[in-house]
Amino acid sequence: MNESLILLLIETILIGMVPRAMPIFSAALGETVDQSAGILNLGVEGMMLMGAITGLLVDYYYHNIVFAFLAAGAVGILFGAIHGVLVITMKLDQTVIGTALWFVGWGLSGVIYAAIFGISSAPPTVQTLGHIYIPYLSSIPFFGRFIFGEDPLVYILIVTLIVVDYFLFHTKQGLNLRTVGQDPRVAEIMGVNPYLYRYAAVIFGGLMAGIGGAYLSLAIVGSFYFDLTAGMGFIAVALVYFGKWKPWRVFAGTLIFGAVYVFYFMMENIYPKIPYEFYQMLPYVVTLIMILIIGTKARAPASLALPYVKGE
Amino acid sequence: MNILKIIQIVFFIFLGLLISSVFFILFKLSPLSGLGTLLYEGFGTENGWYNTLRMTIPLLIISVGLSVPFTAKFWNIGAQGQFIIGEIFATWIGLTFAHIVPPLLDIALAMVVGFVGGALWAMPPTIMKLYSGANEIITTLMMNFVAVYLLLWIVSGPLEGAQAKLVGAPTSAPIPAMDMLPLIPGTQISSGFLISLIIAIVFFFLLRYTKFGYELKLIGEGQNVASYSGINIKRQIILSMIISGGISGVAGMVYVYGITSTLIPQFFSDVSTSFGYVGIPVALMASLNPLGIIFTSIFLGGILNGAFVMEAIYSVPIDLVITIYGLIMIFSLIGIMFDLSKILRRKKIK
User: Fold this and answer.
1) ipTM, 2 decimals?
2) Residue B110 Cα, gap to closest chain A Cα (Å)
């Protein structure tokens, strides 16, 4: 392989990896806030699927991509709120409820799809989200398209990343939220209402999962099929562990995943001798390896997945 | 567990069913008649019962296996992957040794190898959880995806049958008929059903009357309590996952040898063969009691079978079943938590 070909490959990966990373990143950012407040949300996958189908339906019928994302976010918030009632107010087991919400979202997204488009018809398609090409800057060779030629939501999500990071580590409310995740009793003594912070966290988590799902159906695939996310929600949860509850590290982890997806699409064509099933395994194997790399126990918020019972 | 509690849980499960029946409106069916049809197709006819029990066999075995690590609050979501690996290993044995060894030995060998396959597949997540604290739900689920793609490769590559190449739909060659598990005389039910019942009863005693079962329960109540009382937590968890993964592998073997006779591809989105996921609500609904699981697996197996028929007749997608399972999980959890006597007492104090 000569040098220019390798450069071309790297450029293709750079350009492709950012959009591919975004669905996982959006969900993972929500999950980071969730977990910082001590809530383990394992229903992300279901919430993403619900966001994906909602976004697609709204865009398909009203041709308004902004409304589509708003609707997907609203459905995510609804699921987040239900999640909150079940695990914060009713104090049910977060692991079981998370799995149950995944089932509900997984099944329901398929049911809604089939009710509207039928079981065996060709999937509906919508135009995918357009890119913004910043004049001059985007034509810089090699890095131009990658940094200055993304779709608008990428920039919105990166601003969200900066805001969330600032909120968590540089504001009083962020400190309160993390205290709730470490020890709700201490938070209560400090005069902070743990329930309020936890509800805010689950609602944000639901919103970001819904947006992430809609990004997948509207900006990448331009369509919907059964079980579209194929485990991305769980990869998002794994990346929160990998990122050690720091938004920027989580972002870096999701970029690795974006690269893995682009890499396997490319390799399928370049080197088809290996059966393509092995390429398809790649994201999941990489997730397992990444979890393994974290190695020594990642320091989770001390009260992660534990309900807060007042006065105990 | 007292009878009042059981009635209460059953009540909440039906509440969950009623709520999920609302989705029948999307398909121009009234909720109650939709639910009625679903249950009638599962339990109302002789043929329906045969198909329901066919679904129940792998479901019962897997759920009973899941009840073991679940007792220690170790959430094995990977039964689907362990089931698939069990299928692959057992089919490989069947195709390799079919005409060399007597049928009974072949079946026994396939069962043992299926167990080993499932148990091996369960080990990486277990070890990762115990030694680096990796969330077992994520790792077991990732193993499921890897197993799915491994299966897709195996049925279209190494184990692809000659007839499948002609038809173009990848499956393995069939296990010879004489090596299959026989039907129960006078019925159309595979003797795999008897195997699953025996497994359930053995596991009931394992969890209820052995030191192992008692220690798992202690671990489930809290790692601190367990380690103060001198339990080797790591050893017991690994053992519980060997049993759970292995039994899921046996379920895969029984599924191939008792029902399908060939290895068929299963996609992740394929709800109709997702016994490993359905096993989770089955086990939880029965509060992890293996004898209770016999009934809950027949119940959810019947719903799965009914949904099959409804997809064919009313174009209601089988995915509806997964929603129903999710809602049933939530509501049975509420039912278990909900303490009627406590609420009544609190009212009296006030």
Assistant:
1) 0.89
2) 26
